[in-house]
Each structure stands twice: as C-alpha cells, then as structure tokens.
C-alpha cells in the first residue's frame, strides 16, 4: 500500500477546508461577522486582499456551502471531480510559485493577492482537493463517524483509519460510551 506524501501547503489547505466547512456545523455559526472571519483567516495564515464587508463575508459563506456540499459527493468520484473542476474554473485559478519569510519553501498560489478573498480561497482549496484526487486519496475526506456529529475531517493518518473529528471530542465520547456499554453487559451477565 503506497502512502501519499502531501506538500505542506496542500495538507494545510485540506485542514483549512475542514475548518471552514465545520464553522457552521458545530456550536452554531462561527463566522457570523467580520471579526470572526478575520480570526479564521489569521489563524490559518490567509494573506492578501480583505474587503471586510458584508459581500465578502457572504461570498465566504457561499464557498463554505459549496465545499460542504462536496463532502456529500465523496462516494461518487466523477461528481466530486466535476465539482472541483467547476470550482477551479469559477475561481479562474492561475497557478504561480511563491514563498514568504514565514513559509520559505516554494509553494503554489492560484490567484492574485488582489483577487477577492473567496475567489483566492476557492482556488487554493480546489487545487488541494485536485491534489488529493490525483493521488487517489479522496477517501481521506470523511464525515465524523459519531452519530450525533456532522463535522468533516481530513484523515492524514498512515493507514487512513481516523474516524472522528476534533471539533467535539467525538472520539473520546464514542470510546467512553462503548466502554460503558461493555461494562454494563459484563455486569448484567454476572
């Protein structure tokens, strides 16, 4: 079984996609205003133009919805590819190599720093998804296996065995529930 080695920027962008999609799936709306959007952008290292207005926030919300919809297509590779290709086309992605003092390794940018925020984000995110697809690793994108959670995740484990998200302590909750059930079954059997 081969293991895909993701570039740093691809891995970071895949995590960023999950954080964006999850920003309205757990604990309510987490990008409800420009301040919370700025916190998200700063936390994930987004640079370039920021208009800081309602139109920009609405465009990021539309991108979030589009990416969230993509997670419903994961069982159908052809439809997923079509959605990623549409996002690449809609964002008019134009790849170019760059590096920054805080990230000295060469990496790709796919839109001008002057392009609108959601366009830049969409282009970068679509390219990270394209890398995942090209590597035959689409199954690394998942929805949390906890029955009460709709969060999404990217499984970067070696054996692709991650099942639970990081947003709600889902793994621990499921393991504790299974332990208690086993303990209860043993007590009932005695």
Structure description:
- The protein has 190 residues and is mostly helical.
- The chain has a single domain (8-189), classed as Jann2411-like fold (Orthogonal Bundle), CATH 1.10.3300.10.
- The chain is 50% helix and 9% strand.
- The protein is built from 6 helices and 4 strands.
- It has helices spanning 8-22, 34-43, 54-70, 77-91, 117-134, 170-189; strands at residues 96-100, 103-109, 141-143, 152-154.
- It has a two-stranded antiparallel sheet. A two-stranded antiparallel sheet has the order 3-4.
- The longest helix has 20 residues, at 170-189.
- The chain starts with 7 loop residues before the first helix and ends with a helix.
- The mean pLDDT is 88.
- It comes from Mycolicibacterium chitae (Mycobacterium chitae).
């Amino acid at each position: 079984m081969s293991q895909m080695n993701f570039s740093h920027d691809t891995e970071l962008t895949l995590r960023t996609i999950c954080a964006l999609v999850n920003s309205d799936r757990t604990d309510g709306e987490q990008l409800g205003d420009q301040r919370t959007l700025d916190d998200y952008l700063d936390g994930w290292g987004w640079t370039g133009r920021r208009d800081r207005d309602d139109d920009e926030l609405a465009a990021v919300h539309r991108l979030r919805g589009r990416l969230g919809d993509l997670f419903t297509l994961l069982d159908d590779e052809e439809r997923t590819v079509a959605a990623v290709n549409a996002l690449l086309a809609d964002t008019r992605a134009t790849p170019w190599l760059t590096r920054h003092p805080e990230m000295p390794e060469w990496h790709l940018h796919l839109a001008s720093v002057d392009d609108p925020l959601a366009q830049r984000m969409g282009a970068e995110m679509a390219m990270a998804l394209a890398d995942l697809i090209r590597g035959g690793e689409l199954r690394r994108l998942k929805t949390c296996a906890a029955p009460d959670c709709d969060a999404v995740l990217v499984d970067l484990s070696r054996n692709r065995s991650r099942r639970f998200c990081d947003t709600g302590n889902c793994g621990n909750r499921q393991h504790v529930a299974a332990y208690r059930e086993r303990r209860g079954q043993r007590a009932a059997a005695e």
